[in-house]
Amino acid sequence: MKYEFCKREQELMAEVSEARLLEYTQHVAAEVRLSGTPEEKRAFLYVKKTLEEFGLSTDLMYSDAYISLPGKAQLRVAGVEYRCITHAMAIPTDAAGLEAELVYLGKGSPQDYREADAAGKIVLLDGLAIPGAVKQAQEAGAAGAVFINAAYTHEMIVSPVWGNPTPETFSLLPKIPVVSVNRADGDRIKAALQSKGTTKVWMKTQVDTGWRKIPTLVAEIRGNVEPEKFVMFSGHIDSWHYGAMDNGSANATMLEVARILAKHRDKLRRTLRLAFWSGHSHGRYAGSAWYCDTHWEELYDNCVLHINIDSVGGKGAVVLGEANCMAETKSLAERSVGLIAGQEFYGSRFGRAGDQSFWGTGTPSLFMGLSEQARSDDPAAQAFALLFGDGRAGGFGWWWHTTEDTPDKLDPRYLVRDCKVYLDVVYNACSQALLPLDQRAAVEELIGYLKQYQEKAGERLDLTAALERAGRLKEVVAQFYACLEQGNSLSAEQLQVANETMMRLSRILVPLNYVRGSIFDHDLAMKQAPLPALAEIDRLAEAQAGSDEYYQLRTVLIRRVNRVNFALREAIAETEAALDQLQKL
């Protein structure tokens, strides 16, 4: 499809300033910004002051958050000391440290664990220290874990708990000490282990974990037609080390978008709400989760779209087509990326990451990061490819989450390019008469997942009703959008019905497609299947017929199929009612 900029968009793009973007980045990234520290607060105050200079109203709030700041770490293998780092939410050792036998388990696959006895030992693993790998080591009885990263060690948070822990989730926090070494030292450790057969490893870690006050900053540019409705544009300020790319350049982009749109506020139909988080890196999205918990009904009632930004403008960041999106938000990104970067936007499904704390409210989402490195054989790029997308790009750069994330890792040309993409997306989301949400694509995606689940389940579980209802929903949603093709001839009353219907559909379909548990809680920060309520179909398909597991899985899945069926029924009813209203107006 061929897209063109309108005159207003051309004017906006021309206003993006490279000098301002670099100036904002330098200010934000002048200090290390650990969550809840004075250095982070100074960055928040700088952003607040700058936004107020643009004429925006601001609100700086504080909340209690469970924050974990890694301290010193030591590692000794066969008498040789190795440099290492420990990780947020890992437990610290006692003053004497931890000593145990070392066992190498490769990438830590289930087969690797089956073939080795990890109980009471410290496991040596290839890859990044991620929650799933730590959880697997714990379940195997490991006493600790050592991860082999790439050329540099990468700071990580190893807890699967999204936001602050609760009585239900506190027990899921990590229970073992964890460190990471670089690849060169990892190879030496593996060589020593191979030559000796067995060897002892000693590790000592310090991790400062507890409750802290962290800031959240919100600012608004009020819309002119429906100011109660808002687009939320968010990014985190806290950082690992100086974090010039992650997330200084993103904060700079938010400021530049705010500066430009403040000058053109008369063209905004809806309100733009900018939100700056703490607790992203050191509290597993504690800031955004708190904001959702505290403003749940307002978000449910009025937030039309969440746009997130992380780690933009990096050197070598030439791939924009793989950024995260939902099916219903893809077309908005497709247009902007095509016009500004000249690339096809195919998008990748969101994972459980990146301050995506708002799916329970039914808020559609677009982006986490945007631009990535080209795919390569570098171990860091291969690991990042799976973290950030579906493997067709190489992540944010080898310096991500390292001491090397400094201003020299930014390419001003790409920072301007990425800023223009965000500016165009935010402007259109705030100014278009019709919300830029394609619920047809959302329904089509759900039908595809339902068909896959039915194929896996076979005769063990009947999804006929769900498929029939999804098919009916596809028909009525197509009719709904056909009514909207009148474009500018839609009356104000019809526009209101159309936009409210799109929002109500999001409130049903987003949780159906992305939420496993309660819409008022936060699912774990772990890999999650599409239509997660039905994910146990995979286990049902493999369970022995007639076993306890088989009957238990069938019982829970019948209940979850009811949830799916009911949601689809509600979506059909909403759309049919809207069609009736549109035809009468």
What does it look like?
With 585 residues, this protein is α/β, with parallel strands linked by helices. The chain has three domains: 7-67 and 212-431, Zn peptidases (Aminopeptidase, 3-Layer(aba) Sandwich), CATH 3.40.630; 69-211, Glucose Oxidase, domain 1, CATH 3.50.30; 439-584, Transcription Elongation Factor S-II, Chain A (Up-down Bundle). 42% of the residues lie in helices and 16% in strands. Strands 1, 2, 3, 4, 5, 6, 7, 8, 9, 10, 11 and 12 form a twelve-stranded mixed beta sheet that branches. α7 crosses α12 (412-431), α14 (464-484) packs parallel to α17 (548-584) and α15 (492-514) packs antiparallel against α17. The model has no long low-confidence stretch (mean pLDDT 96).
Question: What are the salient characteristics of this protein?
Answer:
3 domains, 585 residues, single chain, M28 family peptidase, 42% helix, Aminopeptidase, globular, alpha/beta, twelve-stranded mixed beta sheet, Transcription Elongation Factor S-II, Chain A, Glucose Oxidase, domain 1
CATH topology of the largest domain: Aminopeptidase
Structural class: alpha/beta
Overall residue-averaged pLDDT value: 96
Distance between the termini: 32 Å
**What is the level-2 CATH architecture name of the largest domain?**
3-Layer(aba) Sandwich
- The helix/strand order is HHHEEEEHEHEEHEEHEHHEHEHHHHHHH
Instruction: Report the radius of gyration as a whole number of Å.
Output: 25 Å
CATH superfamily of the largest domain: Zn peptidases
Tell me the name of the CATH class of the largest domain.
Alpha Beta
User: What ranges have pLDDT less than 50 throughout 5 or more consecutive residues?
Assistant: none
* Beta-strand share of residues: 15-25%
Q: What composes the largest sheet?
A: 12 strands, mixed
Return the domain count: 3
Domain Peptidase M28: 217-417
Domain PA: 99-189
Pfam families: PA, Peptidase_M28
Protein name: M28 family peptidase
